[in-house]
Every structure is written in C-alpha cells, then in structure tokens.
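Let us practice reading a record.
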Amino acid sequence: MTHAVRTATTGDIPRLVDLLLLDAEERHAVDPILWKMAADAPAQIEKALTFALTSEQQPFRQIWQISEHDGAINGVIHSMLLPVPPIYSGTQGDPGLILPDSAVVPGAPESTIDALVAAAERALMDAGAKILLSTYVTGEPWRDVFLGRGYDPLTLYLSRTDLGDTGRPSTTRRATEADVPGIVTRAAENKRILFEIDPFWERHSDADTRFTGWMNRSLTLRDRDMVVMGPPENLNGYVIAQPASRLHFPPAHDITGTGVIDDYYHPDLADPTVLANGGEGVTTLLRAAEAAFADRGTGAAFVVCPARWRSKIEMLEAAGYETAMIWSIKR
C-alpha cells in the first residue's frame, strides 16, 4: 500500500486533535499515573499544534507530517531538531528527534508507520540533522519499525509510581554551595562513563565550568531538591529530583505531579557492567530523591539511564522501576 505523506497545515488541526487524543488515551490506559490526562487535553493539543504550525518565534524547529489514504488522514508524525545540552560538544549539530506523540489510526497497517518515519527522516535531514533519534513508549508497534530502520536503544526512561513517604535516609542531606565542587567532580566521572558507553555523549571542552554554573543556579530554584552523601571535601554522590519537562510528555498529559531524575551519580555505578557494594549507596540516594518527590506530592518519576549502563539498570529494576519509554539512535 502506498501512502501520501505531506506537511500538516492548520486545516488539519481538528482531525489531528482527535487522533492525538486517542493516542494519549492509549498511554493513559497503560499507566494512568505516569501518563495522567490533562483536564483540558483537547484544548492543550490544539494549542500546541496551532503554535507549532503558525508561530515564527519557536525555541526549536518542529515538523508535523501526516499520511493520507483515500483522502483521509490515517497517521501523523511529530519531529524536531533537538538542542544539544551545553555540557555536550554537539560537533555534529542538533540531532533530529522523532517524538512520542506520533500516531496512526486504529487498524492502520504497519506500512503506514514506516512511511511516516521515512518521511520524518527525510525532513529532519533536509533541516540539517546529521544524527537521527527516535522516541517511543514501550509496547507500541513503532518499536519494530524503528528497529527495522536501524535504530538502537540509546536511553531508557525507567519509571515508578509508588514513591512512598518513608522519609529521607539519614545518611543524605540537602546540597549547599560548598558541595558544588564535589558535585562537579562526580558529574565529570559520570560523563566519562557516558562517553565510554556511547560516543554520542561527547563532553564539551567547557563542560565542568558550564555545569558548575548550572549547579549554582539550581541551588536557587525552588522546584527541585538537590541531595548529596558525604562531606563536601569528599562527596560520595549526588542526585537532583526535578519536575518533568514538556519535552518528554505530549501536551495531552498533565505533568504537574511527575518528576525526573537525570543528574545522578554514585561510585557504586563506576563499572557500567557490574554494580558495586550491592548498590547500597546509589540506592540510598535514589530513595532520598523519592522522599523529596513524595514531600512535594509527586506521584510518578522518570529516571534517565543509558541503555547500555547495565549496572544502573540492574539497580533501578531492583528498586522497583520499569522501562516506560525508550530513545533510540540510528546507527
């Protein structure tokens, strides 16, 4: 079956709202806490589409494309040029990313998805992307298409929704300015391991300086908790429990009660293949972050983990986390 794929227009918005709402409801059915629906989900979808298709002042390049069969829309794909975080080198420019709010109508053949992905890849490369990334929520049929087109898992988003309220472990404490040098040192160890796992995470030459500035600013932000172990002069590890960002959640979902853990390291994870000391220290930090989330009324959390960091995955799974979303890279 052939599929006509074209760029979406504002005239497509009403039909796309219906399709994207159905897509969001399928995620919600899998995990109603993590993928909580916004009370005004249709309005939020329409607002996001209108902005993407009409605004000339956007923080990054978005691309919406639709597939049609017999004059009817039977699929949509959303992609963007992903800004490179300032601690990474970005020598190949902004990667192209296919986002999870891509969907096909119920019963659509797999060839619909493949046609959409192929069109998105062409559009992203035409926009200047030299690296292609994709995102999907586990259990969706998009996985097989991405694998068939040469994508390998790069980053896992493991989630847990029963964070509990057992309190912060006594061996952890809130970070202060005195802890920033130790956090930066441990973060440099983390980034070295990341690069060993996959060259995609190549550090910027000024990574430590930039990260120092970000940590000092983070201490002033009231929407997150920075937790450490050990004295400032010999910091054992750190974790930052922060609110979720819209990048990881389509507009139909309410993210006010969801947290993300990304900046997180302890020497228990120094060997990406084998967890040291039974993961006692790194698990203690994780429980401290969960307690911080619970204190804020956060009901679900994502932990970001490279797909080939086996020791970290082992620790997270033992702590009750399951993979909920996967980012992949085209090799």
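A brief commentary: DSSP finds eight helices and 13 strands in the chain.
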